Amino acid sequence: MTEKDFIPLPYSHEHSEGKVTYKSPSNIALVKYWGKKEHQIPANPSISFTLDACATTTTIAYKKLENPTPNFSFDLWFEGKPKETFKPKIEIFFKRIEKYLPFLKEYHFVIETSNSFPHSSGIASSASGMSALALCLMHIEKERMPSMEKDFFTKKASFLARLGSGSACRSIEGDLVQWGHHENTVGSSNLYGIKYPYSVHSVFNNYHDTILLVDKGQKKVSSSVGHDLMHQHPFAKNRFVQAHENLTKLRTVFAQGDLKKFIEIVESEALTLHAMMMTSLPYFVLMKPETLQIINKIWDFRASSGANICFTLDAGANVHVLYPAAEKEEIITFIKNELVVYCENGQYICDRIGFGAKKM
Ligand code: PMV
Rounded distance, CA 288 to CA 128, Å? Predict the structure, then answer.
């Protein structure tokens, strides 16, 4: 498929008003997306676990305007209050997707959004937020084009979400989603995320992710600045090759349930992401002392207990602790006894692999 396939033909139906709600989860990348080309095309393919508990719920109430306006017409509410500061981001998103949803200027939208996780938790809400918004807009498009197939609906929702925030395209479905062209993955695309098309061992069912909130502040580097720094980066070329190789390796790892190899790839990806930031110009260290203390504790515990626990990181100091459901008791006890002390105000979120967004 190409971008052109997402430009609709004239709509067959009219809809003057309505309301729709979607709840869409966050996701955590195992092979990281870091570096992009124009139009949110990723510099390398990535794969993520869709999460379950960390989610955004978005409602759009829409009403046809008497006369279409030259500008987008919308109100934005966040957690029950008007939120003017979020509006420019939505405005940019609408501009980017207008070509693919030509009805946008025909309506007034009231967008109400809320997160299941605390706003200032250091957890990025762009993946869950942009995917929820894209799904609500796709619902409106489907009303105007009732013959739309489910597969197209899902692909276009992911395509639109990607234009809001790259990683958001991996939040439409679950439980494992790959985004970005990879020659060894059938159906993979730079334009949208796909459900992982190969066999996945049952050891990954219900995989857990306990998110340790080490630093609940605003992100120190915005993703867009971070992605841009990969353009002049001395190690970028090798990094992109490595991401392709890791995805190829993961195919056997997922099929065989090889947790030792899984851990090696996931931790190496997390540290590589941070290594890229530390070696860009300007350079950044996004880990905190507590992040490193947690990592060392995890390594010690894994060495002494043999537990299949590992960590991954986003572009920040928080630590995602990943482990199989079967080892939950032992690992949760370890987390509570030894890791929670490094969290800001002792806060952490117990999440697990999820199955994608839901219409409410
Ligand atoms: O979707 P963005 O542009 O906010 O980028 C997200 C990048 C990482 O979270 C660091 C990695 C990833 O693949 O999710």
Answer: 25
Token representation of residue 64: 């046809």
Contacts made by residues 201-205, CB under 8 angstroms, sequence distance 24+: 201/254, 201/255, 201/256, 201/257, 202/257, 203/257, 203/259, 203/324, 203/326, 204/176, 204/254, 204/257, 204/324, 204/353, 205/325, 205/353
Beta-bridged to residue 60, according to DSSP, are 20, 111
The predicted model gives 241-269 an average pLDDT of 98
Q: How far, in Å, from the CA of 33 to the mean position of ligand 1? A: 6
Q: What's the gap between Cα 145 and its chain centre?
A: 28
Beta strand spans in 221-346 (E): 310-313, 319-323
Residues in the chain: 360
**Phi-psi map region of 96: left, alpha, beta (phi>0 left; psi -120 to 50 alpha):** alpha
Compute the distance between CA of residue 269 and CA of residue 30 in angstroms, rounded to an integer.
Answer: 7
User: Could you tell which of 47, 48, 223, 319 is best to mutate to test the pocket of ligand 1, judged by most ligand atoms within 8 Å of the CB?
Assistant: 223
> Cα separations (Å) of 267 from 234, 298, 322?
22, 11, 10
CA of 70 to the centre of ligand 1 (A): 33
Q: What residues have CB less than 8 Å from 34, skipping those under 6 apart?
A: 43, 44, 226, 227, 230, 239, 273, 276, 315
Q: Can you tell me the distance from the alpha carbon of 106 to that of 122, in angstroms, rounded to the nearest whole number?
A: 36
Q: Which atom of ligand 1 is nearest to the CA of 28?
A: 14
User: What is the rounded distance in angstroms from the CA atom of residue 31 to the CA atom of residue 52?
Assistant: 19
> Which atom of ligand 1 lies closest to the CA of 168?
1
pLDDT digits (tens, 9 = 90+) for 148-191: 999 999 999 999 999 999 999 999 999 999 999 999 999 999 99
In the block, which residue shows the tokens 């999820």?
354
Rounded mean pLDDT, 96-103: 97
pLDDT 10s digits, 47-83: 999 999 999 999 999 999 998 788 999 999 999 999 9
Please provide residue 51's backbone torsions phi and psi, each rounded to the nearest 5 degrees.
-95, 175
Strands, sheet with 310-313, edge to edge from the N-terminal-most edge strand: 310-313, 319-323, 208-212, 348-352
Calpha distance 131→108 (Å, rounded): 20
